[in-house]
Amino acid sequence: MRGRNRKQLDYFAALAGSRLRRKSVVARYASRGRPGPRRLPERLRERILRLARTRYAGFNDHHFCEKLLDNEGISLGRETLRRLLRSAGLGSPRKRRTPLHRQRRLARAREGEMLLVDASLHHWLEDRGPQLTLLGFLDDATRKVLVAEFFPTEDALGYFRLLHRLLRRYGIPLSLYGDRHGVFVRNDDHWSVEEQLTGKRQPTQFGRALAQLGITYIAANSPQAKGRIERLWGTFQDRLTSELRLAGATDLDAANALLRHFLPDYNRRFGRAPRESETAWRPVPENLDRICCFIYERNVSNDNVVQWDGRRFQIPPQPQRFSFAGPEFRSTNRSKERFRSITQTPNCITPVGNSTLRGDTFIGPLG
Is 349's pLDDT higher than 60? Predict the structure, then answer.
């Protein structure tokens, strides 16, 4: 008897559930074409669209949503507003780029085939000393830091110093990969008359040296494009900063002294073998000092005086030439140690008045 009652109850329960489902299906189909209960009133929709086309034209969705609440007293979700605007054909004023497929660049196969060059401005000494800039060259194939040094700022003189040391120690690489800093590429819009006539802009001092050495410079358009050396700086800002703190370094000289011991240990721990054992280094020319330097061109006055960097240099009489007046001369400055001359006669350039011969300077006729 009890079993029969239980079966009857199960039957009636199933029958009631079936009827409820039929009613919900009928109600669902019966509501097709009708506005939902949470749909915005038509007058409110028209007001919002009118405001979007007139008073708040050009506002992005988030900003427009804030103005509706602050100025118009309309509380609306940002996603609801976005759907309303898009359904009315009102797109966002900000044009977004189509997502691109990115993939990691394969490292070069040979050592010296491509070097990454960059600088990192950071509080390397924390509160113990001044803010310094670390310049460095990273080999793309081996991930080894070939040369690096701390400088007060990022400038061409520091890059020339590191490039000269790199070339003497390893040789000439095939290419350099860096950013669009003014040391490497021209970023100004000025064209001289000579450049307009030739249709080609003169490179920077560092770019001219790379061209003379046959080194191709590849300029990255974003920090992400040179991510390997950016990640290197992140590692250095962690490990090297801690090492400098441990050593108690407080100035530029102490930081560079520790860096010379830090680099071999870093390369031993994080360096890797290249895919090919053959290297891409090329031999260095003999006139390297006249390439890794600053070159300036000046005209010689009628009294055989050359003006350069606020100083005047007198050219004495020479047996092979009566006067140097008229043609352009080239002044080459590499460091701040001594003075030399390009011409055949030694010591043929002398200062005028109180001018001092500062800098490792070469002065000689063009051509």
Answer: no
Q: What CATH number does the domain containing 221 carry? A: 3.30.420.10
Q: Are residues 121 and 222 in the same domain?
A: yes
Q: Please check whether residues 250 and 350 belong to one and the same domain.
A: no
Rounded Cα distance, 166 and 197, in Å: 36
User: Does 133 share its domain with 236?
Assistant: yes
Measured at the CA of 349, the angle between CA 348 and CA 350, to 5 degrees, comes to 120
**What are the tens digits of pLDDT across the range 239-284?**
999 999 999 999 999 999 999 999 999 999 999 999 999 999 999 9
22-49: pLDDT as tens digits = 655 555 555 566 666 777 888 898 999 9
Per-residue pLDDT of 112-159, as tens digits, reads 999 999 999 999 999 999 999 999 999 999 999 999 999 999 999 999
